[in-house]
């Protein structure tokens, strides 16, 4: 206990995905006061367990290893964690909410696991059942944050990444979503393929002429060429001396994003699309969507911290909002 | 010289691609009397050269290593070779014919390289110029063989492989073609990806229910899902317990072939499509095309030997056809 004017930590929020660990310490106004990131993703941590029964132990050790000082300085602080840490191969299986799902109901389905003198509350994922199933785990807290950060709760939200999610929100409910493995395809193609051998470098964060050429090719030829044929144009243009080796990666990125966006817009009502991604991917999707005549609003990837804060409020783990102006879910 | 009744070898024909070497010995009727295959593709051979100037030497050594006994037994036998051996990174650059190209003109553009006491004639590739360039090298001899093996010389020909070619033939001329890197994508995805970790085995040669499910998914969802989103359905179906680990590879193959065929048919006039591929790939394309209502005729991949024989005839390296019934190019 300190009589210093600093506000006490109210929540330890964790986004623990397959390949990355990110955690934030928030005060009782929901402001981030400290943060930590690590490459100790759930996949790497789970591989330290020799048997499934050891999994809880290795996850607890990894968590305390990253956040121990915060736990010591803030005994009893509530911990809320989302992402693949809640999969059956993570710390503990946190289950799923079936779509359509009200994002405010995530708070009612938390799974509690002990972590020394603390407990960790794991957020469930979302699941589409029926003939075309799909799953997400981690993106649901970003979506909860998008709801808190924006006023229009009926929209299409794109969460670019290794596995990009296209989500339909209707009045704060997720009514459906699909996934495209665009980021993973890009990684595979640039790591070891006919195209990687032509590419002098990876795509950078800026929107280049080569990226836009890739988008244009996907728009112009996408009816007659599937993605497998579109991608080969990177090779033929390079052989013809019309694509420099330094441009190949950006062009391939443009083909992949262009093909994804073109199809996704055919399945969705246009209007405004919210893009929630990293500084390197969000501008690419914004550019592709705006070329297709869609209005784009971007929300920072760190909206996960806000989403976890709101879920903690929904669950009563931290003080609820009293000011109606900041209520994010008018019914 | 022998007075035995055996016919003399008239041609040593070689299809020397990136990853495979295939050669045939043909008698003066064009019949194959012996054959040899090896994994000593042009990529592997070229890597033995420490500098570009050594390349001719390592290719000559590799060729003599495979075909030395044939050369010794048949001194002076003409040698005709096609494939990546004729690329700038092969034995010698054999150039390209620009499309539209009459396949009978391949014979007028052979490149001669010495090989000890023999000479090897390299067949040029084909090239599409203009805004959407493309190249082939090796498939042109299969096409020459398709012309010899079939009577309809105006058709769409599919040559499935690592890089599948879709070729438009009109009166024995190649008027255009495109390439889809479907086979390479399949290899990348099944080697090390989210999907490979779900797959218990590679796709086999038979047409399975899982392959057909992949085709159906591409047909049904292809408008709203690009290939990157279609592919992710393999993961979500597996997670939902609706796709067995032993079925993942066949399902992924169905998605890839289905997406490719669906787009290719939008760019081509339907009618009859000729499929010229291996016993493991040709049935997949036949099945996908027939589901789309297209009549399919299949020609064996070994038609390359026939194609090389006809090019050798066109070039005057072997006796020309005298029987008008076997003329394959009625004008």
TrEMBL record, chains A, B:
InterPro entries associated with the record: DGOK, DGOK_C, DGOK_N
CDD domains: ASKHA_NBD_KDGal-kinase (cd24012)
Family annotation (Pfam families): DGOK
Gene3D superfamilies according to UniProt: 2-keto-3-deoxy-galactonokinase, C-terminal domain (3.30.420.310), 2-keto-3-deoxy-galactonokinase, substrate binding domain (3.30.420.300)
Organism listed in the record: Myceligenerans pegani
Name the UniProt record assigns to this protein: 2-dehydro-3-deoxygalactonokinase
